[in-house]
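Page 47, continued from p. 46.
Same chain as before, 658 aa.
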Amino acid sequence: MLNILNAAKRVLVGRPYRNDRMAHTLLPKRIALPIFASDALSSVAYAPDEILLTLALAGVSAVAFSPWVGLAVMVVLLTVVASYRQNVHAYPSGGGDYEIANVNLGKPAGLTVASALLVDYVLTVAVSMSSAASYLTTAVPSLHGRQAIIATVGVVILALVNLRGIKEAGNVFAVPTYIFMASILGMTAVGVFQAATGTLAEAPSAAFTIVPAPGFDEGMVGLAGAFLLLRAFSSGAAALTGVEAISNGVPNFKKPKSKNAATTLLLLGVIGASMLAGIMYLANATKVHIVLDPATEFLLNGQPLPEDYIQNPAISQIAQTIFGAGSLPFYIVVAATGVILVFASNTAFNGFPVLGSILAQDGYLPRQLRTRGDRLAFSNGVLALAAGALVLIISFNADVTKLIQLYIVGVFISFTASQLGMIRHWGRALKLARDKTVRRQIMKSRIITTIGFSMTALVLVIVLITKFQQGAWIALLAMLVLYLIMWSIRAHYDNVAKELAVDEDSSPRALPTRVHAVLLVSHVRKPVLRALAYARASRPSQLDAITVDIDPDETAQTIADWDKLDIPVPLTVLSSPYRETITPIMEYVKTMRKDSPRDLVVVYIPEYVVGKWWEQLVHNQTALRIKTRLHFEPGVMVASVPWQLKSSEEAKNMQDMR
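Result:
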């Protein structure tokens, strides 16, 4: 069974890499862009939908504000990108926002940022995969209603791809990501040309009348209208997610790492802003309408739509309007959008494991997350992220509108904290700088960072106010729980380190008064005789053999066999009136410890080494339970003495042949 699992692992993951292959995993800019920027670029697939959907609460007239909301999102995006270009030069180690906050604002702030980022990475996978499933049902309507299953399969496949290594994942994702960029920018160019020549048609949903939600009957007037604009902006701010991934992934770039990372950030900002501008313009020009519940919020000629009406996303409607439904360009745009949404999750699959490894090194997460797997990827981090995303997808049935409410809270917490940390960083650097050129550069960086901090802090306040009741409180609660868990793990590691620190009582010169060996005997067979020989070879101060009287006939046979071999070690029979094996052994050992507390007790346990998985189920179970109990006893050591059965030799030979 182990051989089958190992073979399956090699097929899925590939052969392991040596440590000297680490340079093989470093990324050039052309591969780094699709890996780290796919999340931010893919947000144009759902951020416009969320803006249009939110504004639609106030009716058709409110949707006309969508280009201005999109423009505000673009300004914040470009400002944050400019600010993060300073970050990658100042902190190129890969800690990103966590390291910046930890160094400049203190450990509590760093841990807050870390918990926010970890939650946001999980949500990135859940939202992107759910949105990709939605686009797939656009192309294949028969799959409608199966979004959760599709998203689940997508997460599993993406996890397997990332287990093969970061560069391998990048090679897989590069071409489709560039196709997506070309398709959206190309569609924008064609749409703008049609608009300029007066040939741009209206979207399929343009003819629908939107029924305003209660409280918005008069449109965008008053405080309610202003609040709705802010809510639409906060939903569109999802376009900024993924910007921080590059600052967390600087170590994965080829040299010069900081310069290449900064260039990739610039490309991300320019391309992402251009694509968002194009989609928002075309959505407004073609009169795309999107609502939460089409059956109740849309009217056609004064009549509600059928219950089975399927509402397509904005990009799908725009592509259908410009190229025509069923045309090849239409399918290219829809397919490329669906694929990029899948690949957007890959940004999180690169950021989460690296951040998890750094947190594990700092003692805030289990140390298993700090080590690289066979393919030099942080495999345990990949699996942890996939598991978290699957829980969200299944819990929310892959509903993008519900998941998006939990989204972006974490990323703006990290944005704001890191920018505040960078303001302090540049302030300290300015005090130490003497060269005028250097001081001017530092002041320029501090101004950019200050503007970035002001914007992200404002957006964070807006997001918290507008999204709290819609579900943002769930994300905040998850961050708090994760914060407490990480703090507890660090406290545990610190306590263990103190407890295990060498002091005067643990001097290597301090030896036990005596060594008392105990051999566990069930039947007089070869494994018991081997364990007896090893115990005698260790020359303990005293050696006892014990057997538990479960069945009188078997016990009598064991005693007879023991005497027949004339073994020079007394065999003690432990009474067990309730037919228990472990309790009499534990009482025997505890009595020995009580009588001679300074003695070291070594318990020798014969065990079988088997080659088949089902054999393990029928052997060694009692031995395992005894060892588990003995491990909690101070002054007691357990020595397992293996006996290789024939099946284990066969398994070993098969392994050697490979």
